[in-house]
Specification:
about 210 residues, mainly alpha, 5 strands
Length: about 210
């Protein structure tokens, strides 16, 4: 254990030249006693600079933890928004394609038909919620034949038209140019857009009832 000794209070290093008391006391830092060190921190430009730096360093771990926590919350919120958007989009696709045969194999419509992607959502993030890229598909093609993609490609132009099919192919070709695609706001806009499509599908219009999605 290091034994402390009382010394004359006289500024050294950063506090050199500071008008200290000169009395023999317990020295805290920079050769100054507790009282003079406080005055040095509060009344000199150099002391204020050192004090601010010390406070900043002391708070740094806490700030990093707070930032990490906020990032985690935002990430969780974004994942929830993606999941909600998927529900809205897939529900619209199933209703839109009700009564239509499987886009891939042509099996007649059944209530358990799913919303299957042409360009996979996991690979083509920009097309994840594109309704021209998602169509009613039987469970066998979607789940057991990995989308039955070749048959999907053969039949899709007849379903949406050559021009829209070529647009999907073009969007797929440039997908990797976009590293960040979805955020809270554009997911909200996508849900709003698809809900409007669903209203139009049912022959309804978006009434101005003052309600807004949050």
């Amino acid at each position: 254990m290091i034994k402390r000794k009382q010394k004359p209070c006289k500024g050294i290093n950063h506090a050199k030249g500071f008008d200290s008391c000169g009395e023999t006391k317990w020295i805290e830092r920079y050769g100054l006693c507790e009282g003079c060190l406080s005055k040095f921190y509060l009344n000199t430009d150099k002391g204020k600079e050192l004090l601010n730096k010390a406070v900043s360093e002391a708070q740094k771990p806490r700030k990093e933890m707070e930032e990490a926590f906020e990032n985690k919350k935002l990430e969780h919120k974004l994942e929830n928004a993606k999941a909600n958007t998927k529900v809205v989009v897939h529900a619209y696709v199933r209703e839109r394609d009700k009564g239509k045969p499987c886009i891939s194999c042509g099996t007649i419509w059944k209530p358990d038909h799913q919303a299957g992607h042409f360009k996979k959502a996991e690979t083509y993030e920009t097309l994840r919620y594109n309704t021209d890229n998602i169509h009613g598909q039987c469970r066998r093609c979607n789940m057991h034949l990995d989308g039955n993609v070749q048959k999907y490609a053969d039949n899709l132009p007849n379903r949406i038209g050559k021009e829209r099919f070529e647009k999907i192919m073009y969007l797929a070709s440039i997908d990797k140019q976009f590293t960040k695609v979805w955020n809270i706001e554009n997911l909200k806009e996508k849900r709003k857009e698809v809900k409007q499509l669903k209203l139009e599908l049912n022959g309804e219009s978006d009434n101005a009832d003052g309600k807004h999605e949050t």
